[in-house]
Amino acid sequence: MDSADETMKYRSPLVSRYASKEMAYNFSDRKKFTTWRKLWIFLAKAEKTLGLPITDAQIQEMESHAEDIDFAMAAEEERKLRHDVMAHVHTFAHCCPTAAPIIHLGATSCYVGDNTDLIMLRDGFDILLPKLARVIDRLANFAEKYAELPTLGFTHYQPAQLTTVGKRACLWLQDLVMDMRNLQRARDDLRFRGVKGTTGTQASFLQLFQGDHDQVEELDGMVTEMAGFKKTYLVTGQTYSRKVDIDCLSTLASLGATVHKICTDIRLLANLKEIEEPFEKEQIGSSAMPYKRNPMRAERCCSLARHLVALVSDPLQTASVQWLERTLDDSANRRISLPESFLTADIILSTLQNVTEGLVVYPKVIERHIRHELPFMATENIIMAMVKAGGNRQDCHEKIRVLSQEAAAVVKQEGGDNDLLARVQQDPYFTPILGQLDALLDPKTFIGRAPQQVKNFLAEEVRPLLEPYKDKMDIKIALEL
Prior knowledge:
This protein is mainly α. Helix content is 63%, strand content 4%.
């Protein structure tokens, strides 16, 4: 069988099954190595501007070959040299013979390696942020639509005071809003490593510019600006601090925790048949049970979110074991943990957007569940109404206690419906308030300020946060799997 057959190789399902094209490209070899070449061009341009003997012809030659990478040659060079950066220096030099003497001039491997990683991290956040904004937007619309629909609240996964479907969605939104701010902060905090030399002292560049500190600083600033960054890390070892990776991946892990909680809630509500994720016309829920409608998208989000949460342990451990100015035991780990974190975050946001665009609510099921529990919850209202009608609070409390236990026995021991209301109606003691029972049991009198909270939260915290992304809201997600 052909050894080149892709089915003969392991492929990460993050890319082969799930990830978007833009995020897969962001961490691709094509993006990585063309960025290396662009960084070498930035460096040469800045060095020429500051007086080093580099010609326009050399720079033009480099620019004309920035994209045409001979990956086979680079792979062969790396097999010989056991050094990925020098392999690509030689490959670039092969197609740029005039510029060959000045490619990578004064730089160390981390000039291209670390700076490219920072560019990929920045661009990765730029892909994620609009996706997160769209998830928040869809969920905000859902919360607004169902702001006044009463539903059972649950504490300890036991029926509790009523809330509304929209208010519950705002609990999810609040966490996503925090994630939005965290991702934006992590993105904005990123700086460029710049031109720092082998141990971060810029000694090689100081030698190139004959001891002129101002020119070295200007070189650093020029290259940083060309790469699209406003600031550079003023001090580095050979690498930028690996705590930067912790900062980035911890925000993504936190997002993973949020998504896991949201999708777990959706799965629980799907079991109650109150809410369902979208279900395709020809979708199969089970190979053995044709009636099933499994929440597979929410389950996928939970599965991948666990992976995303776990990945943050990699940069935590890597940063803790970097010796002095740098050790290379960060490299192989970062090749996996950095791309996988962004790819996984990308996938769960795309999937969650698809879910939130098609959430189905079943008000009649919700109403039935409320009717089943509400008589117990309304007992305090009944007692207060009886007291206002001239009854004794303690006598009424005892009546309600006895009737409630009888109704509970019917529910738990006989599997019947909650008949507390019927028992109250049949007891002559409660005759003075029989005409008030419907009003006392109106679910909307049990939801407090939930609708107003939804309105205020969306207006004050959610909608303003989405304003920078208003021109990117029309994109919809259709999942292939």
